[in-house]
């Protein structure tokens, strides 16, 4: 924390001495709120994280495109290991906020802009986020690191292969790929989507499935989400492909946490997070198997 805070305080952007205040909630970066004169900013401190395929050039490109699209705050400054964005004074969502229908409808509009409009603003090289590649790479990282979960890997990889086949051919959009509730901020008039660490081209089913699984949407809400997004009646085929991708989203989140257990230095209970996501994955797989 001290090194990160020192780095945040020493950025060339500031007009004078600043006092970075730790901002809780981050499980990939160390974040601060900084007041400089009459302006407030969020400073995200973090280098590349190869084990999670997080590359800061990609985060920067996505953050800029999201700001230009109007779904995320302005990028004010960046330098190696640091990204500075405008501070948004608003409510950071929890799962129950996302589940409220009026909020879910607003979130869907943000997601549609992200998927459809951001490709028009992305500049330079950016990544593709293919969850099944990520899962296979995580398995290798867990084996290399001597994870306590090694015995689970063959079963998890078999599950991934089954899910990839079930998803089938995909459309390509520009996805956020990490739709946790805390990545939505409501300022009273609009919802902002933040934290573009995992952004990249992907199937829309991944964001839709991630939104549902990370926020505990009901089956009725999931059907509404699919119908509203695709503007058509949900077929059995679409529902099954979506459910398979939802399972893949949970599988990735589970293995992300397993990798973080052995590689992250942030103060966070990753073991408990692994267990929580494993339970959600098992429940989603049971639903898929009943289809």
Automatic annotation (TrEMBL):
Stretches assigned to the Aminoglycoside phosphotransferase domain: 22-230
Pfam family, one: APH
Name of protein: Phosphotransferase family protein
Gene3D superfamilies given in the database record: 3.90.1200.10, Phosphorylase Kinase, domain 1
Organism expressing this protein natively: Microbaculum marinisediminis
Domain of life: Bacteria
A GO molecular-function annotation: ethanolamine kinase activity
Stored InterPro entries: Aminoglycoside_PTrfase (IPR002575), Kinase-like_dom_sf (IPR011009)
BP-aspect Gene Ontology terms: phosphatidylethanolamine biosynthetic process
UniProt-listed CDD domains: ChoK-like
GO cellular component, one term: cytoplasm
